Amino acid sequence: MVTLPQSHPLEKHVTQAANRSVKSHQVPLHEVMHAFKVCPSDFESIKPCTRGPKDKHTFMVDIPSSKEEAKLEAVADRSEVLVFSDGSGHEGGIGMQQCSTGVGQRSNH
Question: 3-class SS at 76?
Fold first, then answer.
């Protein structure tokens, strides 16, 4: 909750609960903030999403017609981040994916 942006209606209340020690009429928010010694200034605020569900994607989706073509495109692509998926659609999800963020850096999920 301490990562809420200043534009969020609860941000002021969370910050006050974390910064003030209240002896009477303490609400659960005060108890949680003080029990875990949460300091809002130690956290970075999250910027809210400014895109709607119908907005165009900022990424490109490419589905090659063959394995050979996929290999050639993967080698030639110089994008900062590449995400590969087997597209199995197991239970509405992805069976296997790989995210490559640079030379020698890979994350398999």
Answer: helix
Domain annotation covers residue 58: no
Structural domain includes residue 100: yes
Q: If DSSP codes are grouped into helix, strand and coil, which group holds residue 73?
A: helix
Question: What are the tens digits of pLDDT across the range 38-82?
Answer: 888 888 876 767 777 787 777 777 778 887 888 888 888 887 777
Say if 60 falls within a structural domain.
no
> How many CA atoms lie less than 13 Å away from 24 in the CB half-sphere?
0
Within 10 angstroms of residue 35's Cβ, the number of other Cβ atoms is: 9
* pTM confidence score: 0.42
What pLDDT, on a 0 to 100 scale, did the predictor assign at position 9?
Answer: 92
**Count of domains for the chain:** 2
Residue type, 5: P
89 lies in which domain range?
A: 67-108
Alpha-carbon span 62 to 83, nearest angstrom: 11
The one-letter amino acid at 59: F
Tokens of 34: 């003080």
